Amino acid sequence: MEIKKSEEVLAEVHRNCQLALQSISDILPETEDAELREELLRQHEDYEKIGGRAAILAKDKSIELKNPGPIKKAMMWSSIKMSTMSDNSRAHIAEMMVQGTVMGITALKSTLGEVSEDCADGDILSLARELLSAEEGFEKKWKEMIACARFSAKTPRRGNPRRGLSFTAPV
After folding, report:
1. 165: pLDDT strictly greater than 50
2. What secondary structure does DSSP assign to 66-126, as a single string?
3. Under a CB-based contact definition with an 8 Å cutoff, are residues 28 and 38 in contact?
4. Is the predicted pLDDT of residue 171 greater than 60, yes or no?
5. What pTM, to 2 d.p., does this model score?
6. CA 168 to chain centre
7. Could you read off the pLDDT of 87-142 as tens digits, one per residue?
8. Is 4 helix (H, G, I), strand (E, B) or coil?
9. Phi-psi category of residue 134: left, alpha or beta, with phi > 0 → left and psi -120 to 50 → alpha
């Protein structure tokens, strides 16, 4: 197993944040549910903060970080648009976010598992662990939203069923 360097860990943190920010930006216009939009915006802000700190660390340590390429961004955009075209419900968007978040968690855990603790930069490792913890919290939140959306789908409601949770009395 190849030992990852601090630079590679920081690059993964940056890549992870950039992909998450791009995904959230692509999903937001397709989201009508107010609570869902609020959660997306909150997570976007958290990714921006961590990504900003990664950029500052990179500058301080003279590490060059690369952004995802235009082809990757276009593929993500088209995938999100196609998926939300047929279903922009709370549960579906939350499921999409779980998938992306789990990919980020997996990539971070893999990278952190290949780091030599005694050779790695403590600030970079700390930031990577902070991002991992945040993403694990995001995953939990999305799964709660899926469970609530599925529960509400079984509960009679008034109005547009695509607009989110509504626990009104049966008509």
Report:
1. no
2. -PPPHHHHHHHHHHHHHHHHH---HHHHHHHHHHHHHHHHHHHHHHHHTB-TTTS-HHHHH
3. no
4. no
5. 0.81
6. 32
7. 888 898 999 999 999 999 999 999 999 887 777 789 999 999 999 999 999 999 99
8. strand
9. alpha
Question: What's the CA gap between 109 and 129, in Å, rounded?
Answer: 9
Q: Across residues 22-32, what is the average pLDDT?
A: 92
d(Cα 65, Cα 52) in Å, to the nearest integer? 12
Number of H helices, E strands in the chain: 5, 0
Residue 4's DSSP bridge partners are 115
Average pLDDT taken over every residue of the chain: 85
Among candidates 133, 171, 167, 136, which has minimal Cα distance to 153? 167
The CA-atom distances, in angstroms, between 159 and each of 91, 145, 162, 171 are 17, 19, 9, 10
pLDDT, mean of residues 59-80: 86
Quick one: 7 exposed, middle or buried, by C-beta within 10 A (0-12, 13-18, 19+)? middle
Q: Which residue matches tokens 């945040």?
A: 134
10 Å Cβ neighbour count for 86?
7
